[in-house]
Design a protein that fits this description.
By secondary structure, the chain is α/β, with parallel strands linked by helices. The chain folds into two domains: 190 residues, 3-Layer(aba) Sandwich (Rossmann fold), CATH 3.40.50; 250 residues, no CATH class. The protein has 18 helices and nine strands. A six-stranded mixed β-sheet has the order 2-3-1-4-5-6, with helices on both faces. The chain has a three-stranded antiparallel β-sheet with strand order 7-9-8, covered by helices on one side. The two termini are 26 Å apart. About 6% of the residues have low confidence. It binds guanosine-5'-triphosphate and magnesium ion. The site of guanosine-5'-triphosphate (GTP) has 23 residues, from helix 1. The site of magnesium ion has 5 residues, from helix 1.
Length: 476
């Protein structure tokens, strides 16, 4: 579905070591930066025990590497050792190599040794601290050690509580030791925060300017490409689902009821399968592989597409449906049974009274309208779909957009889900202009009439609108 990006990067030599105190969110920051939800994260300190190299790649091209490391165990002792042993001739990585050899037999220093090993192999370091706690003396020792590495250093102020209360105190101390300081919340960082970090690294080391310029450009291209691919997924789902038709046979002189029930059941299942496929494709595009927790945690998406609540919260109001349909009818100069099967333009323009009263259009469980047909082939048929409910495309779209909203903002460090309160109205489509609503009516009309040329035209403009809308949602 997507075309590979040419990054212009060959075997990036850049390795960024992510270091800090235990349990401050190093692996979380790394998971967010690398968009990797396979990274091990735990509420218990000591989860990361050895150096782990995580490549950040696009289409098989490695842009840079991140090294996850264990937290410092004995920073004060090590800082002291380094101070004692540093000479003008013997410092930086050479001294660190000596440290790993010197402390090899001491289990108490296992994590420290691994951390130092991570620094030896790195081109720069990212020091992660938790800005929701105050600065302590061991932090000063850690900063001393990191300074002695001689590596370019960026400090990242994470916030485990969500509020970096002590950020200003931290900044005062960090300023003495780091080339740059950034707020970077592992659970809330946006795509732009990730790009801003790359730009920061680019500015502190002139040699890296061309490489990191290409990395930032490649990441931006990829982000936009994902969004366009999501718009395509959503349009495929919309066209496919609105046009879905299920036919079941029954004996010509028999009771059509069992076939009718079966057709309804198959129809609901098929719609749900199509939605699940679209959701999976979008998750995959945003590299969310953990699917065993209910993501997104949006209460409406936890509900079935056909539940009363879904239909209460999503889609258009009766009034919007009526106005949009009236406008579509007026634009096409056609009667409104085009969009509303049997209800004429006059009914809608008459102040939407009828649609306001016709609660069937506002209910998901009434979606599967079954037609009983007689054939000349010796059996009867029941048919469900293509769907004529005018709110159906809007409810489908709202659900896709809600999922997109969550996955595009959901960082790969998150393994929980927040308590989201039940909003009164949750959809996006109700904010759309009359012209956009009209174009969806035109699309659904073309689907039902099986008019390929009209469908292609309507789809083209709607997909481009949807791409922009997704872009807007992702950058909120
Ligand atoms: N709410 C919130 N929790 C966070 C954030 N960053 C980390 N945490 C939590 O803090 C705990 C420790 O996170 P890790 O990323 O495993 O920390 P670490 O520094 O890699 O820990 P070690 O590997 O044990 O040294 C986990 O429970 C995380 O979910 C954050 O930005 N917000
Ligand atoms: Mg860790």
């Amino acid at each position: 579905m997507t075309t590979p990006i040419s990054t212009g990067i060959r075997n990036s030599p850049l390795t960024l070591a992510v270091v800090g105190h235990p349990n401050e969110g190093k692996s979380s920051v790394l998971a967010t930066l690398a968009e990797d939800d396979g990274i091990r994260i735990s509420s218990l300190p000591g989860e990361t025990q050895s150096v782990e190299m995580i490549p950040v790649s696009l289409d098989g091209v490695e842009l840079f590497r991140l090294a996850d490391t264990p937290g410092f165990q004995n920073p004060e002792a090590i800082a002291e050792w380094i101070r004692k042993n540093t000479t003008p001739e013997f410092s930086g990585k050479a001294l660190f190599e000596w440290f790993t050899a010197e402390f090899a037999g001491l289990p108490r220093f296992n994590h420290d040794r691994e951390l130092i090993r991570g620094l030896i192999g790195a081109s720069a370091l990212l020091y992660v601290i938790d800005g929701s706690r105050p600065v302590r003396s061991f932090d000063l020792a850690e900063m001393d050690i990191l300074r002695m590495s001689g590596l370019p250093r960026v400090a990242l102020i994470n916030s485990k509580s969500g509020v970096p209360r002590f950020a200003d105190d931290w900044k005062k101390v960090l300023n003495l030791h780091f080339s740059s300081i950034r707020l970077f919340d592992a659970h809330r960082a946006r795509f732009n925060d990730r790009i801003a970090l790359i730009e920061t690294l680019r500015s502190i080391q002139q040699d890296w300017e061309p490489l990191l310029g290409s990395v930032a450009a490649a990441l931006k291209d990829d982000w936009e490409r994902r969004i366009r691919a999501c718009a395509t997924c959503v349009m495929d789902h919309l066209v496919d689902t609105v046009g879905l038709k299920i036919v079941r046979q029954y004996p010509i002189h028999g009771n059509p009821e069992p076939a009718r029930q079966k057709a309804r059941g198959s129809y609901f299942n098929a719609v749900e399968r199509r939605e699940a496929r679209c959701f999976d494709q979008m998750r995959h595009l945003f590299k969310h592989r953990i699917t065993d927790f209910p993501m997104p945690p949006h209460p409406i998406l936890d509900e079935s597409l056909f539940s009363a609540n879904t239909w209460k919260m999503l889609g258009l109001s009766r009034r919007q449906l009526a106005l949009g349909a009236a406008a579509a009818g007026a634009a096409g100069g056609a009667a409104l049974d085009v969009a509303f099967s049997g209800i004429t333009f006059g009914v809608f323009t008459a102040g939407s009274a009828l649609i306001a009263g016709s609660s069937a259009y506002m209910r998901g469980d009434r979606l599967a309208e079954v037609k009983v047909l007689r054939t000349s082939l010796g059996h009867g048929e029941v048919q469900v779909g293509p769907n004529r409910n005018p709110n159906f495309p809007f409810v489908l779209l709202d659900r896709c957009l809600l999922l997109f909203d969550t996955i595009s903002h959901w960082t790969h460090a998150r393994r929980d889900h927040p308590n989201v309160s039940h909003p009164q109205s949750a959809g996006y489509t109700s904010e759309w202009t009359k012209e956009t609503i009209q174009s969806i009516h035109r699309l659904t009309k073309a689907i039902r009439k099986d008019h390929q040329q009209e469908l292609d035209n309507a789809r083209l403009s709607l997909e481009s609108f949807l791409s922009d809308e997704l872009q807007r949602i992702a950058s909120r």
